[in-house]
Amino acid sequence: MSRTHLDQKEVKELHKLFEDIKLDLSDISFPTRTNRLTAVDNMKKVLEIHGYEVTDTKTAEELSSDKHQGREDY
């Protein structure tokens, strides 16, 4: 990534990520936990394209597969 501009590859990736985020969060009732966590993963990628460093300890898939869904109070 250039310091001041995104290249064409990054712009295309951002368009794809934004579409995926909208799809993950669009639901008639309320998006599932898996969809919400996938959207967060995609938001993280958007931030990384813009040069932010985001760290996490678990992926969306790991949190979704946890029977207590990441809650420690069980």
What is the element layout, followed by pairings?
Elements: H1 8-25, H2 33-49, H3 60-65
In words, what does this structure look like?
This protein is an all-alpha fold. Helices cover 55% and strands 0% of the residues. It contains three helices and no strands. It has helices at 8-25, 33-49, 60-65. The longest helix has 18 residues, at 8-25.
Quick structural summary:
55% of the residues lie in helices and 0% in strands.
Q: H/E series, N to C?
A: HHH
**What is the arithmetic mean of pLDDT?**
83
Task: Report the structural category.
Answer: mainly alpha
Task: Detail the poorly predicted runs.
Answer: none
| Helix content percent band | 55-70%
- How far apart the termini lie comes to 43 Å
Radius of gyration, in angstroms, nearest whole number: 15 Å
Count of distinct strands: 0
Shape: flat
Q: How many separate helices?
A: 3
**Major beta sheet summary:** none
Strand proportion, as a percent range, falls in under 5%
Any descriptors?
74 residues; single chain; mainly alpha
